[in-house]
Amino acid sequence: MTPLEASRQVIALVRADQDNARHLDGCAPELIARAEREMGLVFPPSYRLLIEEFGSWEVPPAEFLGVYRTKLGGDRLWGSAAQTVAARAIGLPPELMVVLLDDVWTFAVLDTSRPDQDGEYPVLTWNPGVLDGGLVEKIADSYGEFALAECRRNLDPPT
What is the pLDDT of residue 75? Predict the structure, then answer.
């Protein structure tokens, strides 16, 4: 399965389970481009597809960052770009992009320095308290695969 196919499955899962999954109304291309400029990084295709579709979404307990604005926040962008810029203040290397905050991993990040032939990046865990740059482990080959695994785990828990 390609990362884009995985993202399409995430879209189908989230739309099919409105009792548990929640999402916004999508994100315009100009806001996505602005988020990329603000963090100085480019979203991979599988993540971009989900941001375009939902803006931001959650499949509790996972809250996928995406890109969005709020009425109270005005023109300020929230989500992945804002968390990436903020995490740089505590040591996040400039090539990493924050995609999810987590109680176990602290941060799930994309390593933009290692694109594959399709422009996808591996998903890693990063924790500012870990020596030697904070990288802990690789958790997926692409954002699409990562998001699909998280959604499946949270929408269809084992009985």
Answer: 85
